Amino acid sequence: MLYLLDTANLDAIKRAFDLYPLGGVTTNPTIISKEKKNFLDILRDIREVIGKDSMLHVQALGTKADEIVREAEYLCEAVGGNLYIKIPVIPEGIKAVKMLKKKGIKTTATAIFTAEQALMAASAGAEFVAPYVNRIDNIGGNGVGVVSEIVHLFDTFGMDAKVLAASFKNVQQVHEVALNGGHAVTVSADIMDGLLYHPLTDWSVNQFIKDWEGAYGEGKLTF
Ligand code: E4P
């Protein structure tokens, strides 16, 4: 599974990259606005922490293809590294995906709520498609079901694009996306921790330490 962290918070990114097998970071305008700093400083700081090879997904704001392409070129120049331009799946967004493909700039189609949107974006040349699992669930849909349909369609049509499922509110949604063949997930730091947490794991670790110290006193295996 390819895990990404869905935040622009530098402390959260530093901690999670130190601990977990993370492939990169995803942001969106809402996520970046929470940091209340210059957006370029935020993106450059993230790039410095995660290194040039890790993926950084940054969303364009334009609603016309030409604007989106200009923003993408600017971000490639100003931030650089392994960058993916997130583009919402509006008609001008799809046009921008096609234009950027020709320029060799990688894209992630975002704000996806249906499998047909994902198929169109992949056909236009997006590297990733990002279905919003929890937002779909919240409007009475089936977020995992949409992911499953996208995976099926991509298999059927031999698409190169990968599913980067997004918008999670709990560990169970991530688990079901994985069971349904989602290629990648982007999650908050809390959900990343939650994917590993089990009270019995913690209990077992404490018990091992207690038993060891009962026999050998405090200390570890090294001297
Ligand atoms: C990806 O970066 C998406 O923009 C993000 O996961 C959306 O999450 P939300 O629905 O919790 O805002």
From TrEMBL:
Coiled-coil spans in chain: none
Main localisation: cytoplasm
Pfam families: TAL_FSA (PF00923)
GO CC term (a single one): cytoplasm
InterPro entries noted in UniProt: Aldolase_TIM, TAL/FSA, Transaldolase_AS, TSA/FSA_arc/bac
Gene Ontology MF: a single term: transferase activity
Cellular location(s): Cytoplasm
Protein's name in the database: Fructose-6-phosphate aldolase 2
NCBIfam families, alphabetized: PRK12656.1 (NF009299)
GO biological process annotation, one example: carbohydrate metabolic process
Assigned keywords, A-Z: Cytoplasm, Schiff base, Transferase
SUPFAM superfamilies according to UniProt: Aldolase
Organism: Fonticella tunisiensis
Listed CDD domains: Transaldolase_FSA (cd00956)
PANTHER family hit by this protein: TRANSALDOLASE
